[in-house]
Every structure is written in C-alpha cells, then in structure tokens.
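Quiz preparation item.
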C-alpha cells in the first residue's frame, strides 16, 4: 500500500506541515483545502515545495456539498469542481475527495447522486483526474459507506471511485462485511482514524477527538481485515482532526502518524500471515516482565536527603559503580540507582530538571530485538561513552528526554550489576517489607499523552485501559493505565489541561514531563507502615471524614477501619478483591512514593485518587501559607 497523511492532522503553516511530513518519512500528502487557501503563494509554488522535499500530493480535499443539489446550485457546484480541477493541475494531484452532502438544500436519491457523479466523472476524465466519494457519518442523505458504494457503482465511470474512512464507518458501528465484496480497484482512497468511545454527535466527535490507529477504542483491526479481504493495495492515508494534535509539535505528531501506520500494517500482515514489500518486517512487541531499575539524577547535596528517604523506606546501599559516582539501593526485587556523577547524561538531566527519574530499565525477553523494533517504529536510540569493560545497555529516548533501557538474560544485559558495580554488604540490614515495583506514574503535557501512549503500545506487548477522569482540587486529570497481561509491568499516564492540578504543578517544578510517583508493593501494608513510622518516614495524612464514610459504605468492622485510620491507609474493594495504599509526603520537586498491597485486585484505587489529591493539595497550600 502507498501511505500518506493529510495536512489537517498537523499544526502550523502549510510549509511547516510539509516539512514535518517529509521529516517523518512519508512520501504522500493529502492537501486540505484550507491549508492551501492560507498559503502565501500559488498552488504551483506549493507543488515545487512539496516535490523538493520528496513528497507527492496524492489527494486534494475536501470537496463539499456536491451531489443532489437542485438548480441553480447544481450548475454552480459543477463550476466549482472545474476550478478545483485547475488547482489540482497546478498541485500535480490527480484525485479529488468528495464528501457526502450536508446542505439542507440537497435532494436525496441514489440515482440522482449517481447521475451527478457520472457527469463529474466525465468532466474529471477530460482533465486527466479522478474523484472519490466518501460517506460522512453525519451526511444529510448518505452517511453509510454502503450507500456511497452504490452511488459509485451506479455512476459506472472509471474516474469515479470510493473513499472508505475508518472513522465514518466504525463510529456508526456499521457492518463491515459489505466491504469485502467491493472490488479493490473501485476503492480509490482509504482514510484511517481511530477515536475514543464517546457518546456525542458524530460531527463533534470527528472534528475534535479523532486520533491515530491504536490510540483510541474503535475496532481498527476489524476494519483492516475487511479491507485486506478485498485485495486492496492502493492509497492508505491518515486524516485526523484532533485539538491535541493542533496544539502539539507538528514534527512529533507526524512521527506518531508514521509509527501508527507501521504498527497497524505490521499487525495486519501478522494476522493475515502475509508480508508486504512496503511494510518493514518488525520483531514482535517486547514481552516485559517488570522494571529492572529506576535511576534518579541527583546532585551531591540533594543525594544526602534522598539517601535518608531510601533508608527510611527500608532500602540498603547494595552496590557502588566501579568508575562513576553511582550507587545501587535495593530492597526485595526493587533496584533504585542514584546517579551523582558530574559527567554524562544524568548530570545534564539533573541540571535541567533537578532531582528526578532520568531512566527506567525494563526486563524484556530479547533486548536486541526490542531495540530493532524500537528503531523500526521510529524511536530514538541512545548511547553514551562507557568505561573499559563496562556494559553499554541498549536504550531509547523516553518521556521528557529520559531514557528507557532494556535488559535481558538472553544476551546477558542483566549481568550489569555484577559487571559495573562493586557489591556492598550490610550485615544489620532490615527492610520494610517492600518487594517489587507495582507501577510507575508519569505526568506529561496534555498534548503529549496520545504520543506516549502510542510510544509504549507500539513497542511493548501491553494493553491499555479506558481513560479515566480524576478530580483534582485544581481541575481534572486524564489518567490511562497500560499494563502487561500478567500485571508484571504497569504504567500510568497522567495529563491535565488545568495548570492548577498537582500533575501540572509537577511539570512546572520539573521543567518537563517525567515520573511523578512510584508505587512499591508489600505483602503486609500494616507492618510496612509501622516500620516506616519507626524509621521517621512522613506519610500523607488522610482526612477523618474519609474513614467515617468508609465505615458506612463497606462491611469493614470498626476495628478494621480504625487500623486503616491510624495508618493513613486508603482502601478499595472490587468483589472479594482488596487494595490498600499509602503515600509518602511529596519530596523535592513534587515526587512521592506509594506503598500498595493487592489481594487479587486489578485496578489502581481510582475512587481514592480525589482524596489523595486533595490531601496533597492541602499540604502544598499549608506549606505556602507557612512560608509567607
């Protein structure tokens, strides 16, 4: 298939959009009419710019309110079409996309529409161009691809074909079986768009919430399987209307678009058991079995307090890097690395962001294949100098300029603790019962959230949960979890449009997106909390009202509720499954730890999030007041 992207997907001027599309390695571009109208030169100059960057204009769109118009409007729309053909000739484009009529003046009838398209086909053929008909999901008379196909079939003209748009087809939950019987040579253009499941009118849904394949909830795979059954091998393009995309970086969004197509087509051919010459063969998505380590970039002064925090949480210093000012802190299966070295990546990260998580390392089955897949889906590899005999662990750039490392047993990258670190033995070590990393929570700009969702689901074998709206005293936070089927790796993505939420304040303090909190597991949260109190760890206080309500709305005994109250532990239940969670107070920069205990519980205590956020906001307010 030939792939392309529409300029409407991106922010910026036409020139900025075209440069971003070329940088993302596309070869075809759909020109949205408004982008050309605002271009400060001629269509011929636009063509020269497009072709100079190795691109070709594959579609000019949209041509609106065409079929079924009464006179004198009918004559006017044909005259307008002739003018569009002139523009297409200057652009070097041979396909005009026509969307179904929404005008209140339009007249219904398949035969009437077919007659109009036959005449348009005659005019187009004389100009050496073609036209393709799309059924808008909110079309006045034609809003079903099956009716649009019937119009094309009856028009019976070689210059008239069909557009299939995944959003318009799937948003209405239209049956897909009819697609399989459409001759592939009559499908002139396929436009791809995903979207979250929302209960709203089709027009608003389409104009504001479309997203790239994989970022939403529509059954894109089913659509592609039906398309594949036709033998279609033509033009496949992305057409996305999305407020986040318009507010984001054009280059970043264009890369996301290319990444989404690469992954979507690879998965299609895997399901079909076939390959395609235009689609790079990808290694399978990486199977992740957990987090090998979390690395913090810390300066020497801040390291003193951070080490005290780790000691309070029950961690012990377990290793010293052989050549760098880097220490390993360990408890159970949890490894935390403190990097105070004055050279290298972590030092630069610390200068920019302060004390913050600069890297995560994932345990995968095959690190080499994971890197191969990462490069193919356009992730950015990272390398830095290492000392003699030290391991150069494969990595890519992650959220906020941080790193994502990959370690495995197969190629021996998991030996880095033995190769790079001198062990430190501690005879009197006593932990706090923490055993593993339960999940990591990352906060990011609202415009970035779909980008990083796609980043993770393109690289790792994970599933995504529905987006949840979490109420913060300063606004609403959008939260989405991605996790492996067995729960060995869990990641929470958070973003907010409000600048007053805890998530947004964290971004301001960090000077960018990053890890805001890490949840650690215990098998006995009450014993862990007792140990943390002995160690002097400050836990987040929870309001008395929460526990009064807990006693009323659950079947917990008064004794159980009192135990939770004294320990500041939050509680949730789903059936017989239980979840316990407690938080440290925020550390420098707004980062904090969470301690959790799961009893067959699959979620993240979403109902408790507003209580936690309100408690954290109250502490921030109290701190600011006392500072005054």
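Solution:
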């Amino acid at each position: 298939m030939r792939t392309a992207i529409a300029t409407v997907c991106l922010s910026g001027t036409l020139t900025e959009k075209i440069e971003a599309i070329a940088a993302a390695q596309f070869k075809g571009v759909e020109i949205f009419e408004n982008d050309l109208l605002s271009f400060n030169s001629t269509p011929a100059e636009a063509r020269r710019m497009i072709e100079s960057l190795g691109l070709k204009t594959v579609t000019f769109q949209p041509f609106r309110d065409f079929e079924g118009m009464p006179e004198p409007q009918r004559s006017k729309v044909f005259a307008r079409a002739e003018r569009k053909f002139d523009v297409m000739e200057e652009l070097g484009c041979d396909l005009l996309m026509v969307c179904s009529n929404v005008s209140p003046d339009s007249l219904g009838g398949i035969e009437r529409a077919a007659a109009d398209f036959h005449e348009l086909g005659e005019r187009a053929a004389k100009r050496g161009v073609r036209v393709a008909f799309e059924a808008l999901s909110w079309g006045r008379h034609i809003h079903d691809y099956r009716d649009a196909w019937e119009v094309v079939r009856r028009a019976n003209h070689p210059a008239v074909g069909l557009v299939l748009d995944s959003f318009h087809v799937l948003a209405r939950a239209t049956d897909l079986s009819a697609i399989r019987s459409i001759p592939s040579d009559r499908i002139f253009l396929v436009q791809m768009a995903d979207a979250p499941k929302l209960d709203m009118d089709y027009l608003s849904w389409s104009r504001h919430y479309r997203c790239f394949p994989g970022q939403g909830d529509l059954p894109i795979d089913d659509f592609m399987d039906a398309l594949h059954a036709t033998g279609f091998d033509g033009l496949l393009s992305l057409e996305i209307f999305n407020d986040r995309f318009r507010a984001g970086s054009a280059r970043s969004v264009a890369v996301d678009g290319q990444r989404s197509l690469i992954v979507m087509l690879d998965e299609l051919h895997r399901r079909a058991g076939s390959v395609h010459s235009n689609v790079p063969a990808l290694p399978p998505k990486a199977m992740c079995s957990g987090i090998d380590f979390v690395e913090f970039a810390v300066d020497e002064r801040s390291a003193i307090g951070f080490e005290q925090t780790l000691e309070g949480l029950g961690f012990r210093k377990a290793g010293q890097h052989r050549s760098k000012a880097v220490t390993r802190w360990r408890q159970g299966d949890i490894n935390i690395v403190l990097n105070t070295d004055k050279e290298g990546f972590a030092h630069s990260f610390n200068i920019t962001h302060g004390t913050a998580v600069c890297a995560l390392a994932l345990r995968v089955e095959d690190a080499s294949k994971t890197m191969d897949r990462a490069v193919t889906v356009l992730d950015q590899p990272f390398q830095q100098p290492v000392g003699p005999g030290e391991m150069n662990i494969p990595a890519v750039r992650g959220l906020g300029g941080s790193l994502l490392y990959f370690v495995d047993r197969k190629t021996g990258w998991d030996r880095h603790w033995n190769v790079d670190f001198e062990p430190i033995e501690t005879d009197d070590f006593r932990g706090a019962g923490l055993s593993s990393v339960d999940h990591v929570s990352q906060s990011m700009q609202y415009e970035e959230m779909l980008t990083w969702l796609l980043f993770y689901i393109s690289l790792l074998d994970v599933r995504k949960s529905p987006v949840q709206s979490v109420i913060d005293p300063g606004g609403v936070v959008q939260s989405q979890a991605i996790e492996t089927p067995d729960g060995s790796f869990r990641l929470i993505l958070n973003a907010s449009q409000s600048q007053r939420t805890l998530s947004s304040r964290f971004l301001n303090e960090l000077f960018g997106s990053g890890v805001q909190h890490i949840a650690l597991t215990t098998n006995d949260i009450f014993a862990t909390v007792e140990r943390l109190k002995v160690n002097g760890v400050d836990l987040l206080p929870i309001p008395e009202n929460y526990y009064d309500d807990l006693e009323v709305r659950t079947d917990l005994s008064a004794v159980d509720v009192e135990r939770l109250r004294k320990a500041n532990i939050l509680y949730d239940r789903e059936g017989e499954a239980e979840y316990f969670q407690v938080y440290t107070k925020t550390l420098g920069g707004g980062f904090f730890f969470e301690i959790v205990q799961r009893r067959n519980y699959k979620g993240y205590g979403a109902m408790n999030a507003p209580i936690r956020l309100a408690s954290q906001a109250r502490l921030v307010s109290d701190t600011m007041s006392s500072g005054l």
